[in-house]
Amino acid sequence: MIAVEGFRDRTVALFGLGGSGLATAAALVAGGARVIGWDDAEGARATAAAAGLELRELHELDWRQLDALILAPGVPLTHPKPHWTVDLARNAHVPILGDIELFAIERHVRSPKSPFVAITGTNGKSTTTALLTHLIATAGRPVEMGGNIGRPVLSLETFAPERAYVVECSSFQIDLAPSVDPSIGILTNLSPDHLDRHGTFAAYAKIKERLIEAAGIAVVGVDDEPSAAIADLIASEGHKVVRISAVHRLADGVHAEGGVIWEATGGTRRRIADLAGIGSLRGRHNAQNAAAASAAALALGLDPATIARGLASFPGLAHRMETVGRRGRVLFVNDSKATNADSTAQALASFDRIHWIVGGKPKAGGIAALDGFFPKIARAYLIGESSDAFAKTLDGRVDFVRAETMERALELASVAAAADDAAEPVVLLSPACASYDQFKNFEQRGDRFRALVAALPGLDDGGAAAT
Fold first, then answer.
1. Rounded mean pLDDT, 334-362
2. I need a labelling partner for 223 at 20 to 30 A (CA). Which of 38, 115, 120, 244 fits?
3. Which residues hold ATP (predicted)?
């Protein structure tokens, strides 16, 4: 645990008692702060009470006596309207902070030489975070991974100058971290997302920009126009920028071309690693992720041979292009983390003959933008709340069936794929939707798919490793 010592002998209110909220409370208490917590959910309050946290209705507090409001990232700060605790804090001129901000403050004071890589973007940030962590571990260096992936950031091992911290940061977390200043900031890409929480795409992009603008080195994907514009802007302001691409050959930066990662300087390039045959890094989107992780690894002093070895041994990320089995010629892929159309596009681009399980709680724009991939889809199996809308989009263009549930979708898809005469038909769960209509989160959705695939008769357990 990283004890938050900056609030010793001070009183803070904390709203949101999920996993990160409880970890934050524990870190504050360990550092000598008085924490008064609350959550609207009775179950969360019961868990917090069992852990010994002081609970009080925050409406009852004299907010002028508080030193901060610590807000869980899932609680609205601005849109669709500020949470009631936010209004109380602002009226009393109380700072509103999140756990990433507390981490950044503690590191700055206690261990400023500890490498801190913060990774954000619309898509690819989790894979890039996990991949960079794996590269650093491959080099034999101590490394901790957390934030929006895996462990809450304040539950990581305490600071040491040689220990690197690789932290995935959502836009919600950055919004609550006004002074975060990583050694290296990575922006993978940008497309419209979470507009219900940020109001406009411009506001969403500005939050991402702020993270990398404050970084010692900014690693920025330039394969989309908004990110490329941010790279140009912060470079013009004098910031050190390393551009990355899976589409363009760069004169300066790190790019993927022909399945190879290259580092270019002044038009001269050196070979870093070959991605051929690495199933966990299949597809152009993963080439960009590999370029981003490689750029950060080079900035941290890793050599190309170590990076190549780490890329080759990367096991992949659960729920993101995760091969979960093979039955004969049929490959089963869990891409449950694809919660928007842009993310699903990366999966559809990676295969040639697809039995596509799609749907859930839809996001703005639906799947209309994926029409360029429709010729690859043998059949779509619609599940969840989005079925009506997606049926209208696919009607007359893609063969589809309204399966409604994951169980029925996999049953139908596995039979149809087995009868498909393609060399490698793929049953792909890539929902392009949030999971909240039928599942608690994308992990639960992906776990369900994986369990259903595992129960299929004749499944080759070694299929995942073979790909």
1. 94
2. 115
3. 121-127
CA distances from residue 457 to 313, 414, 454 in whole angstroms, order as listed: 30, 11, 8
Residue identified by tokens 């999966």 is 347
The values of phi and psi at residue 239, to 5°, are -80, 150
* DSSP H/E element including 227: helix 225-236
**Cα–Cα dist 342/349, whole Å:** 11
Structural domains of the chain sorted by starting position, each given as residue range(s) with its CATH number in brackets: 5-97 (3.40.50.720), 100-312 (3.40.1190.10), 322-466 (3.90.190.20)
The beta-strand segments (E) located in 246-398 are 253-257, 260-265, 268-274, 322-327, 330-334, 354-358, 377-383
Nearest 5 degrees, angle CA 428-CA 434-CA 440? 100
Whole-number CA gyration radius for the chain: 23
Say whether pLDDT at 461 is over 70.
no
Rounded CA separation 135/281 (Å): 14
Write the secondary structure of 117-137 as one string of H (helix), E (strand) and C (coil): EEEECCCCHHHHHHHHHHHHH
Alpha-helical regions (H) of 349-428: 387-394, 406-419
Task: Quote the mean pLDDT of the chain.
Answer: 94
Which residues are annotated binding-site positions?
A: 121-127
Q: What is the pLDDT of residues 157-188, one digit of tens each?
A: 999 999 999 999 999 999 999 999 999 999 99
What would the 3-class secondary structure string for 374-388 be? HHHEEEEEEECCCHH
Whole-model pTM: value is 0.84
* Numbered residues of the known binding site for ATP: 121-127
Sign of CA dihedral 170, 145, 449, 73: negative
Q: What sign for the dihedral angle of Cα 33, 36, 38, 42?
A: positive
